[in-house]
TrEMBL record:
GO terms for cellular component: cytosolic tRNA wobble base thiouridylase complex; mitochondrion. This is Cytoplasmic tRNA 2-thiolation protein 1. One of its GO terms (biological process) is tRNA wobble position uridine thiolation. Pathway: tRNA modification; 5-methoxycarbonylmethyl-2-thiouridine-tRNA biosynthesis. It holds the Pfam family ATP_bind_3. It comes from Diploscapter pachys.
Length: 357
């Protein structure tokens, strides 16, 4: 084993960092990783003393590491945060029920309060029921749209003023690439922001923005963090998966490719007309929306009436108002991106999902 590459360290190297390729010992790896997250928090001004933050906890590696690191740094640097875990139970047997067990263990181990909000209580539908009705095609669209709103609702119930998610550098690079491939200029302009959310919206912050997925997995292993690892049972091959595989190949050739892509997204300048979306409130549920009725309410209407085209139509043609819907009759443009599906399905291709949850 080679010695740790950090100055003044005499330990043996045990890991090669994904981010910069340096071979380091366990202690230095952990310190560098935490320092990176702390730097992002400070430079991007993610938190203010007294913030009540809801950490989106799915039980997966990213959010498990996120919760652990934010808590550790809050204690170490005295950020003055009041931290809660927030889990959304989509109602997927053999997937979310298992991952919620991991969150429950984290709750006990980290001593953080946990709030679980389910699709069933919010919408009267579980994803298992949705798939039973509509099949697997497009189901990620429902899941993503419902999750975005559920996270907001959950944060509201907790009284949180910020929502914190585990999006990492690999996620961001994939998103930049997909937005370029789709020519989605508006999303390209905001997809790498460490803080997203418009006026009147709960800010969503991403402290792991510059952390490589590889390093997140190493960190979890070195700290013996328990997390759940299984793909969603309803996630088919997706556009995002292709982007992910492509980036993994690039990373093998040139690890900096991930940061370069994130940097490209950050530096791209977008004309104001292309990047702005007028926000209003859904006339049914009051949730913020770029259309008179939010995407979640439209999808629910489709589920409840058995007309699964509602909220799903990809063609921009005028939509017939329904009995319960006295809106403009316009076919709604997709809500702002919601990577609820983790970008796992065809909703990506329609621009319904992808980046910031
Ligand atoms: N069911 C959920 N409940 C709470 N938060 C969630 C949930 N699903 C996703 N999130 C939040 O959104 C982030 C990105 O979600 P995504 O689906 O891309 O998962 P991921 O990259 O596999 O992350 P993780 O490893 O944390 O599951 C997660 O890190 C987490 O903070």
């Amino acid at each position: 084993m080679k010695p740790c590459e950090l100055e003044n360290c005499e330990e043996k190297a045990v890991i090669k960092r994904g981010k910069d390729g340096r071979a380091v010992c366990k202690k230095c790896f952990i310190e560098l990783f935490e320092q990176d997250v702390h730097d992002t928090i400070v430079k991007e001004k993610l938190f203010t003393r007294g913030d009540k933050v809801a950490i989106g906890a799915s039980g997966g590696k990213d959010s498990t590491v996120l919760a652990y690191v934010v808590k550790t740094l809050n204690d170490k640097y005295d950020y003055g945060l009041n931290i809660f875990l927030l889990s959304i139970d989509e109602g997927i047997k053999g997937y979310r029920d298992d991952s919620l067990e991991a969150v429950e263990k984290n709750r006990i181990e980290y001593g953080l309060p946990l709030k679980i909000v389910s699709y069933e209580e919010l919408y009267g539908w579980t994803m298992d029921k949705v798939v039973e009705n509509i099949g697997k095609k497009n189901n990620c669209t429902y899941c993503g749209v419902f999750r975005r709103k559920a996270l907001d609702r959950g944060a509201e119930l907790i009284g949180a003023n910020k929502l914190v998610t585990g999006h990492n550098a690999d996620d961001m690079a994939e998103t930049v690439l997909m937005n370029i491939l789709r020519g989605d200029v508006a999303r390209l302009g905001r997809c790498t922001n460490a803080i997203t959310g418009d006026e009147n919206e709960l800010p969503r912050v991403k402290p792991l923005k510059f952390c490589f997925e590889k390093d997140i997995v190493f960190y979890a292993r070195l700290q013996n963090l328990e997390y759940f690892y299984t793909e969603c049972v309803y996630a088919p091959n997706s556009y995002r998966n292709f982007a992910r595989n492509y980036i993994k190949q690039l990373e093998r050739l040139q690890p900096r490719a991930i940061l370069d892509l994130v940097h490209s997204g950050e530096t791209v300048a977008i004309r104001k007309e292309a990047s702005t979306q007028i926000q209003t409130n859904c006339t049914r549920c009051g949730y913020m929306s770029s259309q008179p009725i939010c995407k979640a309410c439209l999808l629910l209407e489709g589920l409840n009436t058995g007309n699964y085209q509602i909220g799903n139509s990809s063609k921009k043609k005028p939509r017939e108002p329904t009995e319960t819907n006295s809106v403009t009759g316009e076919n709604p443009a997709p809500e702002k991106s919601t990577s609820g599906c983790g970008g796992q399905c065809a909703c990506e291709a329609k621009g319904l999902s992808g980046l910031s949850i």
